[in-house]
Amino acid sequence: MTDAPRITVWNENVHERHEAPIAAIYPDGIHGAIAEGLRASLPDATVVTATLEQPEHGLTDARLAETDVLFWWGHGAHDEVDEAIVERVAEHVLSGMGLVVLHSGHFSRIFIRLMGTTCSLRWRDDGDREVLWNVAPGHPITAGVPDPLVLGEHETYGEFFDVPPPDDLVFVSNFSGGEVFRSGLTYRRGRGRIFYFSPGDQKYPIYHRADIRRVLANAAVWAQPQSPRELPTVSHRPREWFTG
Amino acid sequence: MTDAPRITVWNENVHERHEAPIAAIYPDGIHGAIAEGLRASLPDATVVTATLEQPEHGLTDARLAETDVLFWWGHGAHDEVDEAIVERVAEHVLSGMGLVVLHSGHFSRIFIRLMGTTCSLRWRDDGDREVLWNVAPGHPITAGVPDPLVLGEHETYGEFFDVPPPDDLVFVSNFSGGEVFRSGLTYRRGRGRIFYFSPGDQKYPIYHRADIRRVLANAAVWAQPQSPRELPTVSHRPREWFTG
Amino acid sequence: MTDAPRITVWNENVHERHEAPIAAIYPDGIHGAIAEGLRASLPDATVVTATLEQPEHGLTDARLAETDVLFWWGHGAHDEVDEAIVERVAEHVLSGMGLVVLHSGHFSRIFIRLMGTTCSLRWRDDGDREVLWNVAPGHPITAGVPDPLVLGEHETYGEFFDVPPPDDLVFVSNFSGGEVFRSGLTYRRGRGRIFYFSPGDQKYPIYHRADIRRVLANAAVWAQPQSPRELPTVSHRPREWFTG
Amino acid sequence: MTDAPRITVWNENVHERHEAPIAAIYPDGIHGAIAEGLRASLPDATVVTATLEQPEHGLTDARLAETDVLFWWGHGAHDEVDEAIVERVAEHVLSGMGLVVLHSGHFSRIFIRLMGTTCSLRWRDDGDREVLWNVAPGHPITAGVPDPLVLGEHETYGEFFDVPPPDDLVFVSNFSGGEVFRSGLTYRRGRGRIFYFSPGDQKYPIYHRADIRRVLANAAVWAQPQSPRELPTVSHRPREWFTG
Fold this sequence. Notes:
InterPro entries (chains A, B, C, D): Class_I_gatase-like, ThuA-like, Trehalose_catabolism_ThuA_prok
Mean pLDDT of chain A: 95
CATH class of one domain in chain A: Alpha Beta
Organism (chains A, B, C, D): Microbacterium deminutum
Order of helices and strands of chain A: EHHHEHEHEHEEEEEEEHE
Shape of chain A: globular
CATH architecture of one domain in chain A: 3-Layer(aba) Sandwich
Protein name (chains A, B, C, D): Trehalose utilization protein ThuA
CATH superfamily of one domain in chain A: Class I glutamine amidotransferase (GATase) domain
Strand content of chain A: 25-35%
Oligomer: homotetramer
């Protein structure tokens, strides 16, 4: 495990181009802010971005083959992501590429494809205060992260969040209106590692925060492949496989 | 939880109709043998069968709505199962219907859909001896099951079995040629319970055995819905949801 | 699994005898209120009580051998529980007896003995509102339980709760002051099942509530042994164990 | 996470001093062979050893405070390990120190203390062939390890192994006589990481093998603390903890 993962930050990049208040928060796009934070936290990492409107959404096979960890932010345009590219990304994850899914990416095609559940949840947007608690204090994703992480005003996500039970439950959020949410979850799928992290609604300047950037950098280091990438495939093996 | 689940046993029913040796082992079909065992073990249960060649593969919405637990056996005809029906079954599972996937059903569309992984594995068919060990002795699926369960001659399945880490690892198999296999696995997905159980290759009279029938009956009781069925869906909730 | 478990409700029974306000809430003791609720919910169950001041704390080997599920409430007198009896209870749990640990029982000797961690947590008692959310909607312990379960005024418990990652995370609580707490947790240890459930501070009439009684009754049914009780012990087995 | 953990290898060091055949296999002790392998694999690590016969078994508070990862090999002398030192080691683990427990260390006081179960298993010693399979191919402990790892002749351990369900099941072993064993298991307890790895009976030259040394080096890197060490302790927090 090194501090130099090759990272691609993917964003649908729709809100920032069509809504002035969002553009004001994220003049370089949400992907730009995330990439900037990763570069600052991990000076040896290679960080590039890709967006929906690019050919093949910027996710060519060559690009993915050179990506150790893919970050994913999407919201209103989930249905515009091509199924063939979703399947391509899924194969890279199952082969060992890391995937970090952010906020409303819970409803992205790639996340539903890999989870197998509806990935639905409850929500409100009333400016409640969100507080994240670390329930896995030895976990590398939480290193150097304040506990609790008081996010302040944010969109409210609530349970039941219909995802498989995670390998590690890392963060749980309290919302001042009464909800809780499992806001940091890890999964192993195939040879790949997946981290879902719920903060990051477009209306709040979440990705400029130092504490959130610490979480994302930790996640990038944690999610990178541990061994050569290879898609698990069915294999027939002859009778004398190790005695011959 | 009752001992009277309503069970549908689904089988592609191909081997038995086209290969005389298989028909000799299972004159009433694999589904017939499984259903017979369930009826004998659970006298209060309602057990019906459904097969690939029936309209809608016998899995109409009405049928699934009246099914507490669906058993699934398939092998050579996975690709002939209609995607729309796979999605229908998936919705019933996520709503709370139990699902028991058997043997080569690891490569069925419904299992891959719900797991999100390749579900691939290693295999040989050399008549090795398989022995199943109970690694979760307090689990209800193992009640009354001999430990170990010496299956004798059977097809060999080997790791790596590319499925998500299970909620409960129940059985692990030893094969005389050197392989191991996680042969009994439980999953919670949405509101539904899933059990994968690997014994049951068509060339061996597995489903006539009393010990295997005990496992399947236990699985049927375990997998049935615990509460009213309902697909998890995204929900918006007003600000004053419990204080108003 | 039946609806007729044999239950012993254990309570240190100290607050009720020495503090008038607690005695007013629980005139028959906390154990009395819990037992009453279990009898009402499970008419076929056998429910008895045991308390600290009895010989052997009421937990003789004979009593435990006839107990399918032991409930445990303790707070100020954890240190007065004899270590030999703690070890006796632990052996029964590892042999298959169910255990339901309540509220401040997180610091009981039996819970620490079985968890292996400090079982420490954060707390305040400011009359915050507690709301429990069901994060495992298909789990039998949640059947018939309102979601959310709005507890209202209660003592505040907060993370980090130093327990092993649970097999199933069932409930998560929100407190109006900002904390979250994993308030319903299941564990399998040896052949036994353990459920920790955090509501139940002595100053609040928690155990008179119908929703809480539903949880406790579900837990009793869930935690009872699934097979004959037997302590896992090391065993030497001869070379020809199944071929001889 | 770095490649320079400070490691202490602890060994009861009894077989090697009293049995000539064991001394012939491990002239520098089992601890010496393990330490030699760690030094070769992790040139930047600091590796020291400690043994039972030393004052405080070589595990003073100062020594543990300077240990990132403690390896533990014991067999016949478990009962000679002082309870106070067991408790001291447990506190360091719960505070964040890594622990790697080897082979018959499954019955060490420290492992039982941290697991809470009997840690019993089945065994034979007939020179069966052991083969370890990687069931978590993306896990850092498996990086660079052959799959399968064909151990050849070794003592047989068999299920049921009475430990809590692990966080990650990493390796499963096949024995030629028919047993299986969960031979590589990870646990998070408090802030610390624990890895149990079953190969290593004193009669076989296991710890001289390159593949086994790779596993142990990976485990050392994986188990080291991710953040400052601190024992989780109960904490009272005032009402206005983040609004004041």
